[in-house]
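Format is chain and fold; as here:
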Amino acid sequence: MSGNPSSAPAPGTVYLVGAGPGDLGLITVKGKECLEKADVVIYDYLSNPRMLEWTRTDAELIYVGKKAKAHTLPQGGINELLVERAMAGKTVCRLKGGDPMIFGRGGEEGAELHAAGIPFEIVPGISSAIAGPMYAGIPVTHREHCSQLTVFTGHEDPTKTESSLDFRKLAEADGTKVMLMGVERMRSITDALLQEGMKPETPVALVRWATTGRQQTLSGTLADIAGKVESSGFQAPAVAVFGDVVNRRDELNWFESKPLFGKRIVVTRTRKQAGVLSKQLADLGADVFELPTIRIDPALDQLGFGELILDAHTYDWILFTSPNGVEAFFELFYKIYEDARSIGGVKIAAMGPGTAAKIKEYRIGVDLIPKKSVAEGLVEALVEEIGDLSSFKMLWVKAEETREVLSKALTDRGVILDEAIAYRTVPETTDRTGAVERFRTEGADVITFTSSSTVEHFLDLRLPWPDGMKVASIGPITSQTLEEHGLQVDIEAGEYDIPGLVKAVVELCRRR
């Protein structure tokens, strides 16, 4: 008999990755790289779900979130899952909120992997123990107040017969104390610290959903903070800070003073494009959740699209009216040609600065950008630039479904116009980040629309309209579509692009 017997695959590597405290920008570069290459992602409750957008489309995503008294999967089951997927030869990213080794049970998972002979790496993350207070304007160390930091957990192993916390030592310790978890036990913890001699007037602050747009801060003293927690309904997840450093909050509270802080803003774009708008809003303090309503798919007739690109050098002008069209055009262009000069002497017109910026990414110059980013504005700009348009040969790179305004206006002026269908918009059917459910349960303050397609596909979802939610539109065409569907536009961007829409949202929230 010949041939080699089949053998099991070599175990895959498991990466125990700290996701950071919540802010999308506070994961490490290495942590993001692990997410991008993983076959399997096993993630926690406190991991920012938007990080899942960095994963491969074919990656297996497994939620094993744990809240107080509500575990999707017990720790033993998580350990078994890590071993099982790795033994199948998969590269596994175990995404854990904060740092995997600071009260994160990463040590237990690593030990289990070691016992099973599975290679693993630990990727540190920024802990909420320091980031949470920092985003509330509280430095955990300060030379005028302390030179020592004590970190402890308020949520111990429930199988222990007695607490391993020495409240006397905690009460007597100099400097700042930071407690992770344990908000539901605040009364018993503060009582124990008071009983062991910690001063009742010691400043205390709790920071909930730290580093995100949902952040809330509750301040008090050791004597009254438990009562404030109970009367306000303050809940986990939260980090608690004990010490004089809390008094620096008034002068260092940088995050909660941002113009959009605490505003829940919905972004309706494609998953790929939502990030730009989301980041600009989040940078201004907004609590952003992306509700992609459309997906950009390739044009059905790729052969016809390719033939027009092949002849691109024969046109006088190429008209790009969206970044999506630009991307589809040049991705195929560089499969046909190796040299950018193959586009010839054709001139390029871009509808709006966003489209122009996308063209420049491909090292191609832009000859014309209309003052108004609408079809009528582009026609006016071409007439102003050229004069008589008759007999000019133009290629319009467009979506499958677009208004006929541009086509009619150009052909009426004698333009020989070819239309290259570059892409089509289809409904987005997945909800990887849970944004739809969050919208249903929490509502929003503002919803943004960046195209007529996002309006129509959002309405197709038939979601309840939250009381008081305002509408921000990127421009007049989108506004017209909203109004045709009976929706009131509360503000329209002065400049019909993403920066203009962000300015409009800020203005709308300022009015409110």
In short: Residues 323-336 form the longest helix (14 residues).
